[in-house]
Amino acid sequence: MNLDPTSMTPVVNRIKRAQGQLAGVLRMLEDGRDCEDVVTQLAAVSKALDRAGFAIVASGLQQCLTAGDSTDSVDVKKMEKLFLSLA
C-alpha cells in the first residue's frame, strides 16, 4: 500500500519539527545542560514521532478501507502489527 503524498504533508511537517527538536536535544547535551531539561525535550521529540507514526498508520488504514469494497483487501494483521509497533 502506498500512501497519498498530499495527505502526508502534515506528517512530514511534524517529522521536520521533531528533527529540529532532536537537533536541539543534541546541542543541549553538548552544552552540558540540565538533565531534566534534556529529558523533557527528548520526551517531546519522542511524542512527536509517535504521533506522526500513528497518523501514518491511521491514514494507511483509512486508504485501505476506502479503496476496497470488502475487508478482504485490507491486510488486518499487517495493519495491526504496524499500529502495535508504535505502542
Helix content: over 70%
Assembly category? single chain
Shape: elongated
Number of helices: 3
Spatial gap, N to C terminus: 21 Å
* Biggest beta-sheet profile: none
Structural Rg: 17 Å
In percent, how much strand structure appears in the residues? under 5%
**Could you tell me the number of beta strands?**
0
Global structural class:
mainly alpha
State mean pLDDT (0 to 100 scale). 84
- Reading the helices and strands in chain order gives HHH
Low-confidence stretches: none
Q: How is the topology of this model organized?
A:
Layout lengths: L8 H22 L4 H33 L8 H10 L2
Task: Summarize the entry for a quick read.
The protein is mostly helical. 75% of the residues lie in helices and 0% in strands.
Overview of this protein structure:
The structure is a single chain. The protein is mainly alpha-helical and 87 residues long. The chain contains three helices and no strands. Helix 1 runs antiparallel to helix 2 (35-67). The protein is elongated.
Key phrases:
mainly alpha, single chain, 87 residues
